[in-house]
Design a protein that fits this description.
With 249 residues, this protein is mainly α. It is 81% helix and 2% strand.
Length: 249
């Protein structure tokens, strides 16, 4: 139950972002700064909490296999979704940049939702498996996932509104995805509670590989496009904040 609730908490950022995107116009630079900061937090969390813990559990081979498999699976799914119009699913103004102009996409809210699922499921599984270490939630990871979900909700809500979708449709869709995040965290805890250290290390590696690929493929480009030369500095502050909190807590 606790694992599911923590996953639901991280997934609730999708609903919060959707609410802001639907009712409150937010400057894109602010959203990009949140993404840059969240990228740094995610990289810190997967480096010092996820990968290090997985290596201690099952050794390098299990982690490496899972890490490459997770990144490969995410990349394949992301390429398919990009072709369906979800390449810029973490952009708050729901627009894609062409060769000559900024053009609003059409008919891609379903792809945005699917993108949120492939981004969110591995993140939520990480939250669930982090409880298996000894009952203490990796709350730095929860904060990182929460921050990464906000722009996705913003982008989808803005895109759905431009497509003429109703508020009921939009918020029902994101409520369901938030519930999937909670269930994924619950599943991560229950399905792997009795798994061997090598299997659990492989699962953590899969999630870590998918998260890192997601940061580089979807978060970093949009963060840079919105904040330009400040993206790296903001990400460094996010990384240092997460690192400090994980070591000093």
């Amino acid at each position: 139950m606790q694992a599911g609730l923590w996953g639901l908490l991280s997934g609730s950022a999708l609903l919060i972002g959707a609410g802001v995107g639907w009712f409150v116009p937010m400057p894109r630079r602010v959203v990009a700064a949140i993404m840059a900061f969240g990228s740094g937090v995610l990289i810190s969390a997967l480096s010092f909490e996820l990968m290090d813990d997985a290596w201690k559990r099952g050794g390098f081979v299990a982690v490496a296999i899972g890490f490459i498999a997770g990144a490969s699976a995410y990349t394949g799914l992301n390429m398919a979704l990009a072709a369906s119009g979800a390449r810029h699913r973490k952009r708050s103004d729901a627009s894609t940049r062409g060769d000559h102009a900024l053009v609003a996409p059409q008919g891609n809210s379903a792809s945005l939702a699917l993108g949120a699922l492939i981004d969110g499921v591995p993140e939520s599984i990480v939250i669930g498996t982090s409880l298996l270490a000894g009952g203490a939630i990796g709350w730095v990871a929860v904060a990182a996932v929460f921050l990464s979900n906000l722009p996705e909700g913003l982008s989808s809500a803005a895109g759905a509104r431009k497509e003429g979708k109703t508020a009921t449709y939009t918020f029902t869709l994101w409520t369901m995805i938030a519930l999937v995040a909670g269930f994924s965290s619950f599943a991560g805890y229950t399905l792997f509670a009795d798994a061997s250290p090598q299997v659990l290390a492989g699962v953590q590696g899969v999630a870590a590989g998918a998260i890192l690929a997601m940061v580089i493929d979807t978060m970093a480009p949009e963060a840079f496009e919105g904040t330009h030369d400040f993206a790296g500095l903001i990400a460094v502050f996010g990384f240092l904040t997460a690192f400090g909190l994980s070591k000093l807590a």
